[in-house]
Amino acid sequence: MKCNRHPDADATAICLQCGRALCPECAQEINDEIYCKTGPCAEKREKRVGYQRRAGGLAQIMGLVFIALGILAALLVGELVPSLFSIFAGLIVFIYGLFLEKQAKL
Ligand SMILES: [Zn+2]
Ligand SMILES: [Zn+2]
Predict the structure, then answer these.
(1) What separation in Å is there between the alpha carbon of 103 and the centre of ligand 2?
(2) Share of the chain residues as helix, strand and coil, in percent rounded to the nearest 5
(3) pLDDT tens for each residue of the chain, 106 residues long
(4) Cα–ligand 1 centroid distance for 91 (angstroms)
């Protein structure tokens, strides 16, 4: 396969954003991911990463709120089953948020 911009150069990578074939001169590597050096691909990636990071932070906060509500309900109402369910759901959301944030490394 040949580079998308240089018909003489062999492609060594494929852009993760747009799928074009890239030679070493056209490719840039960000955290083991390959993107076009020219064009909006790296920029789009940064937007996606920013969004993921915000979503991850939000999910962590929501998870903590669920956990806190579960603990509060257990203490105030004494209903253990709904409390455990809430704490469990909060943990899952919280861990998902950590995962999202980890994915969004720059
Ligand atoms: Zn690209
Ligand atoms: Zn090229």
Answers:
(1) 28
(2) 55, 15, 30
(3) 999 999 999 999 999 999 999 999 999 998 888 999 988 998 898 898 899 999 999 999 999 999 999 999 999 988 788 899 999 999 999 999 999 998 876 5
(4) 37
